[in-house]
Every structure is written in structure tokens, then in C-alpha cells.
Design a protein that fits this description.
Distance between the termini: 159 Å
CATH topology of the domain at 22-162: Immunoglobulin-like
Helix content: 10-25%
Structural class: alpha+beta
Number of strands: 11
Shape: elongated
CATH architecture of the domain at 22-162: Sandwich
Number of helices: 2
Largest sheet: 7 strands, mixed
CATH class of the domain at 22-162: Mainly Beta
Strand content: 25-35%
Length: 217
């Protein structure tokens, strides 16, 4: 077979191979970390549209209410409109385009969650995603069917370790019977008393000597 024919056959089979499609993904960052009780755990929700034009993205986040308190939600700027709703143990954030015909493409922040750490343990924060489901996390492509292009296999969840308790101030212990006050002066000893009496003693001895002078004259 001539080389030109081989090249044409190779090109033909290459064209028959479907091009790989990059799906959308949602991830949480940081994916892990160590915290103490009463710390605030900041979690960023990032959407990657997989180079596709999209009109909306939904992220349903679940968490352990025994370890984490209700989060404060700060809107991201990737989608111009952000809606959110919460119930015990879950929060749903939706990013939407504002005007018909607008699209969002690329990677950006959907929202940021601020969780209070309640008690020690390993806190899982999970993106709820089931292939084919419409009531959990989704990324809608800009087409007539609003096709969900989110690949659940590319979801990145997070796990945080909460250990110990918040730092506290240590108060010194005062022994029983003590007032806890610091002495303001050191009491005098017998040595200091004798030192203070020395001038008086010397005067007395001098008077005795003066009194005895006539006796010896």
C-alpha cells in the first residue's frame, strides 16, 4: 500500500474517534484542615463549566450538624445572581444569569460558607450529586434543553478535623490561707535592731568613763 493511502486511512479513522468532552465540576476548598472548637471554617464553592457556556449552577451542600453550626453564606461573583436557602444540615446555593441570552463560561466562586466549629470530631462537608437527578447539584448548559453537564465523578468534597477546645486563660492558684497579696516591706531582724541601738550604747559608755575620771585623779 502506498504511503499516501496509509495516511488517508489513518486520517479517516482519526476522524471517527469522538472528541473527549470536558464536563463541568464543582469543588470545595480547602479540602481539609485542622481547627479548634469555636473556630470559623471558611469553605469556598468553586464551579468549573468545562469550557461550556452555562446559564445556571446549583450546589447542594450537606454537613454534620453535631459538629458544625449553620453557615453564613457570602455570594460569589461568578454568576451575577445568587440565591440560597437553608435547612438543618444542608444549604443550597444557585447561581443564575440575569438576562436572557447571557452565559457564564470558565471557573469562578459560586459562594463562600462560614461554618462555626461546635465540637471535636471529623466534619464532612459534601456536595450532593446524583447523575440524572434534577433536585441536587447541577450545572445547566446554555442550550434548548438546559442540559446538566455536571460530572458527579469530578466532585471534590471536604473533610475538616476539629480537635480540643478554644484557648483559655490560665489563672494562678492561691494556696489555702494566703491572701494572695505581695508584702510591701521586709520586717526588721534582731541584727538591724542592735545596729540601730549602737549610738545609744556608745553614749552611755562615754558617760561612764567621764564619771570615773575623778576617781583616778
Amino acid at each position: 500500500m502506498k504511503p499516501a493511502v496509509i495516511v488517508l486511512v489513518a486520517i479517516f479513522f482519526f476522524l471517527l474517534i469522538p472528541a473527549s468532552v470536558q464536563a463541568a465540576s464543582i469543588e470545595l476548598t480547602p479540602v481539609s484542615g485542622d481547627y479548634a472548637v469555636n473556630d470559623t471554617i471558611s469553605v469556598t464553592i468553586t464551579v468549573n463549566t468545562g469550557s461550556k457556556d452555562t446559564t445556571s449552577a446549583d450546589a447542594v451542600i450537606t454537613y454534620d450538624v453535631a459538629l458544625l453550626g449553620t453557615p453564613t453564606v457570602t455570594d460569589g461573583t461568578f454568576y451575577p445572581t445568587v440565591q440560597k436557602s437553608q435547612q438543618s444540615g444542608s444549604v443550597m446555593i444557585s447561581g443564575l444569569v440575569t438576562n436572557p441570552g447571557d452565559v457564564v463560561n470558565g471557573t469562578g466562586t459560586l459562594a463562600t460558607l462560614q461554618f462555626p466549629a461546635l465540637t471535636a470530631g471529623t466534619a464532612q462537608v459534601t456536595i450532593s450529586c446524583t447523575s440524572g437527578a434534577t433536585d441536587d447539584s447541577n450545572v445547566s448548559q446554555s442550550d434548548v434543553d438546559s442540559t446538566d453537564i455536571l460530572d458527579c465523578a469530578q466532585i471534590i468534597n471536604a473533610s475538616y478535623t476539629i480537635g480540643g477546645s478554644a484557648t483559655s486563660t490560665i489563672t494562678p492558684t492561691i494556696a489555702a490561707g494566703s491572701t494572695g497579696t505581695t508584702p510591701t516591706a521586709i520586717p526588721n531582724t534582731g541584727f538591724f535592731d542592735a545596729y540601730q541601738l549602737t549610738p545609744t550604747i556608745l553614749v552611755g559608755v562615754l558617760l561612764i568613763i567621764v564619771g570615773l575620771i575623778p576617781v583616778f585623779l
